[in-house]
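Residues determine shape. Take a concrete instance:
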Amino acid sequence: MNFEIGLYTLGDLVPDPHAGNTISPRQRLKETIEAAKLADEAGLDLFGVGEHHRLDYAVSAPPVVLAAIAQATKRIKLTSATTVISTADPVRLFEDFATLDLLSDGRAEIIAGRGAFVESFPLFGYDTNDYDDLFAENMDLFLKLNEADVVSWSGRFRSPLASAEIAPRPVQSRLPIWVGVGGSPESAIRAGRLGVGMAIAILGGEPERFKPLVDLYRKAGAEAGFVPEELKVGITGHGYVAATTQQAKEEYFPYYANYRSYVSRGRGTESRVTRAEFERLAGPDTALFVGSPQQIIEKILYQYELFGHRRFMAQIDIGGMPFRKVAEGIELLATKVAPAIRKETGK
């Protein structure tokens, strides 16, 4: 299996810390499609969009946005990042992504998770106290829908299915599904027992602290009867690439600090990242992927030694960053970083 490198976006609508303006949702979506097109043309492997249901994010319907991207691209894989499966109807979710798979000639995937906020629970009539039970039940049903054309099923949170025809069927024999994990051992074990991929969000700190999660995931998967090839690990994180590490840090810091402050306010807290803290977060041994192409290569390869993962996805467009900077980062990631990573991991 080749090492895959890609991008994801949450479509945040954050004021530019320099200019002070916030682009419109329409412009944000147009730029998201253009970023995916650039990534596809440059040879990156996958592109993801996340799900939020807030006025400060542009993407609430990942399969719709990904379907638009499918028409502008040719080969890049298309994934959610993430789908809040706890508050999604599994049948509608499967049909949406199966349709995306047909429209994209077999390029659709799903990363299922909780997401950064919980606004979808009251919006769609669910109780956050039922989070774990909803996740377990909806994952169980989705995996059954992925296996068979006709499904009978019953559960606690939605009406039962009696020999229900599940249409359309995707191009792929099964839609690839991953579980997004932020740091919970229980989530890692659950992903292993289900035999789905595990996408770990490492947004800062030392990557070594996530090694136990990978070990738990693989152990649980093996005990459930899955072979190593079925237990796929991916790493996701914030990143920014420039010609030199110093340039990358100078350019990225205002946007990163802006994003962190904005997200914390959305959660009802106030968190400001100082330049000194940012320097620590972006150090050579930490998980914030900010630097020259060589610095990013070294960080990815170090984590590859730790985890043995086969996929890395970077979020490079946060905090009101202008699209021209995103485009420059895509080019460097595709032309400088990706070839070196594929060469080293292919040995």
About this structure: The chain has one domain: 4-345.
